[in-house]
Every structure is written in structure tokens, then in C-alpha cells.
Design a protein that fits this description.
320 residues; mainly alpha; Rossmann fold; Tyrosyl-Transfer RNA Synthetase; three-stranded parallel sheet; two-stranded parallel sheet; 56% helix; binds adenosine-5'-diphosphate; binds tryptophan
Length: 320
């Protein structure tokens, strides 16, 4: 089985990215051949500062390696190091119905947030389809907000195969229900565009201050509290074992347990997990040659696969 996912280097990675996409992708590296890439072509639809894009691309590479990506197992690369994908995107765009793209929520959401309606933003799902199809991927672990893009990919692949012959594997999205949407400090979906994130590798003091700012209701200390409607609990449970989760829920319901205590429990859980990874990340950051070598090596392996699929698609369509 081949597993593939990508992430845009368009800001600092946060707990939503980690639990929604990184952790599932890292766990799946045990189950099959995994391709994971840094979607810098996609990031161009929102990032227009070259220095920033380079820095964020490197930061994402460090984040993944620090969080346990094993480059011997996982083919880890920069999207743009496999330029074949842009050619495939063009081939696919010639059969992608406008209506399919017009229905995409992500495009409409981005316009609502004030992004300019560029052609790149509109055809974003076609490039994503090329990413997925060029590696003949079976499974695509993503957060819920990306599910529609995987469905668009399936539609495009099915149409291509019907029209030109069986070139592409039809992929399936893989979404873990319990972490479908990680809430941010304000209870909305955690997203860098809402300014409500907890970064994985932000400044430790700032991270603590942000945890202390998580929005709660204003029940007094002695009142029993409902863990199931609490943002702090929703985040805590992502780190906790079933027993730890049940224990904290019981303390909420018993009363005399304040939101300050809950925030401390969450901060402790965060540090227990990300403290050691922060250390590892700092060590990796000293060795930029190693990071570059990992990405180049990944690109070489990815490219061999991409070339094969592109050749088959070109041939099926009559380009060669
Ligand atoms: P952001 O919303 O911060 O811009 P991206 O859209 O770049 O994040 O998301 C990158 C990946 O992380 C995607 O697979 C997405 O589904 C996942 N993801 C992002 N935020 C969350 C969240 N709050 N909950 C679950 N998954 C998320
Ligand atoms: N669109 C995805 C996101 O914003 C990133 C991405 C690009 C991707 N190409 C992909 C994810 C292919 C999975 C498969 O999160």
C-alpha cells in the first residue's frame, strides 16, 4: 500500500497540523510505503515573500524530522524538486470540469478571508490531484478540511481512466474521526489564519502564555464542570491515554477543580511530549547539510516514480 500526504510551508506548524495530519502520517509509515512532501508550489498561492517561503520550507522539514519522520522509511521531499507534477497538473486540468472546482469549499473560504482570486488558488485542487496521482497513491491521510480535495482527485482520476485508459490508482482519504478538528484557543478550528494556534515549536514561554489564554466559560472554582464542552479538555485528550482522560474528566465533574488547574495539566502534557522533540529539533537545525541531503535523496526516489506515471499519462493522451 502506498500512502501519501503533503503539507504547505505557509507558517509555523501547530497542534491542529500535528494531530490532524502529522501524527497520522507518521503512524502510517509503519503500514506501508509513505511519501510525504512539503507543498511549496501550493504555498505560492498564499505566500509572496521568497525569504519567508525558504525559511518556512526548512522549518517544516525540521519539524517533521524532529517529530519522528524516518527518512530511510519515508520518502520525504520538496514538491518543487519533482517538477513533473506541474506538467501532470496541466494534463489533468484539460479534463477537470470548472463546476468541480467551483464547488470547492476551501477556495470559497479563502476568498471570504480576503485572499485574491488568482488562477493558482482556483486550480489548487488540480495540482493536489497531480500530487496524489503521480505517485499512484492508495491512501491520503489529511484533516477533514482536505477531504473534498481528495474527492476531487478521485473524480479527476476516474474521468481520466475512463477517457484514456487505466493510468491512475484511485486514492482514498484517511481521516481519523476523533481528531477531525482540533480546536484553537478560542474554540474555533485551530488555524494559523485565525491567530488561535499553539505552535509545536514556538517559544516555550509564549506557548505557556497561550495555553493560559484558552477560552473557557466562567464557572467558579467549586462548581462541577463539563469536560465535554471545554476547549482545554478537548486539547488535553489528544495527548492523554484513556485512563488519563477519564481521570481528568472525573476531576472536572467533582468540582473544586478550576480551569487554571486544567490548563496546567494541558501544559504539562504538552511539555512532556514536545519538550524532548524541541531538543532534537535544535540539534537537527545545526546540521542544514543533513536536511538538504534528506530532501534531495527523497526527491530522487519520488522522481523516479513520478516520471513513470507522467510518461504513461502523456502516452495515453497522445503527447508521446
Ligand atoms: P491552517 O488551517 O493552519 O492553514 P493547513 O490548512 O495548512 O492549516 O493544514 C495542513 C494540514 O493540517 C491539513 O491536512 C489539515 O487538514 C490539517 N489541519 C490543520 N488544522 C487542523 C485542525 N485544527 N484540526 C485538524 N487538522 C488540521
Ligand atoms: N492542500 C493540503 C493542505 O493544505 C496540502 C497538500 C498539497 C496535500 N498536496 C497534497 C495533502 C496532496 C495531501 C495530498 O493541507
Amino acid at each position: 500500500m502506498r500512502i501519501l500526504s503533503g503539507i504547505q510551508p505557509s507558517g509555523k506548524l501547530h497542534l491542529g497540523n500535528y494531530f490532524g495530519m502529522m501524527q497520522p502520517a507518521l503512524q502510517l509509515q509503519e503500514r506501508g510505503e509513505t511519501f510525504l512532501f512539503i507543498a511549496n508550489y501550493h504555498a505560492l498561492t498564499t505566500v509572496s515573500d521568497a525569504t519567508q517561503l525558504r525559511a518556512d520550507t526548512l522549518a517544516v522539514a525540521l519539524d517533521f524530522l524532529a517529530c519522528g519522520l524516518d527518512p530511510r522509511r519515508t520518502i520525504f521531499f520538496r514538491q518543487s524538486d519533482v517538477p513533473e507534477v506541474t506538467e501532470l497538473a496541466w494534463l489533468l486540468s484539460t479534463l477537470t470540469p470548472m463546476g468541480l472546482l467551483e464547488r470547492c469549499h476551501s477556495y470559497k473560504d479563502k476568498l471570504t478571508k480576503g485572499l485574491a482570486a488568482t488562477h493558482g488558488l482556483f486550480s489548487y485542487p488540480v495540482l493536489m490531484a497531480a500530487d496524489i496521482l503521480i505517485y499512484q497513491s492508495n491512501l491520503v491521510p489529511v484533516g477533514r478540511d482536505q477531504k473534498q480535495h481528495v474527492e476531487v482527485t478521485r473524480d479527476i482520476a476516474i474521468k481520466f481512466n475512463n477517457q484514456f485508459g487505466p493510468v491512475f490508482t484511485i486514492p482514498e482519504p484517511s481521516i481519523r474521526d476523533e481528531v477531525a478538528v482540533v480546536p484553537g484557543l478560542d474554540g474555533q478550528k485551530m488555524s494559523k489564519s485565525y491567530g488561535n494556534t499553539i505552535e509545536l515549536f514556538g517559544d516555550p514561554k509564549e506557548t505557556k502564555a497561550r495555553i493560559m489564554r484558552i477560552v473557557t466559560d466562567c464557572k467558579p472554582l467549586d462548581a462541577p464542570k463539563d469536560p465535554d464542552t471545554c476547549n482545554i479538555f478537548a486539547l488535553y485528550q489528544l495527548f492523554a491515554t484513556a485512563e488519563e482522560r477519564a481521570a481528568l474528566a472525573a476531576r472536572y465533574r467533582a468540582g473544586n477543580f478550576g480551569y487554571g488547574h486544567a490548563k496546567k495539566a494541558l501544559h504539562d502534557a504538552f511539555e512532556a511530549k514536545f519538550g524532548p522533540l524541541r531538543q532534537r529539533r535544535a540539534e537537527l537545525a545545526q546540521n542544514s547539510d543533513y536536511i538538504e541531503e534528506v530532501l534531495r535523496n527523497g526527491a530522487e526516489r519520488a522522481r523516479a516514480e513520478a516520471r513513470k506515471t507522467l510518461r504513461a499519462a502523456r502516452h495515453a493522451m497522445g503527447i508521446e
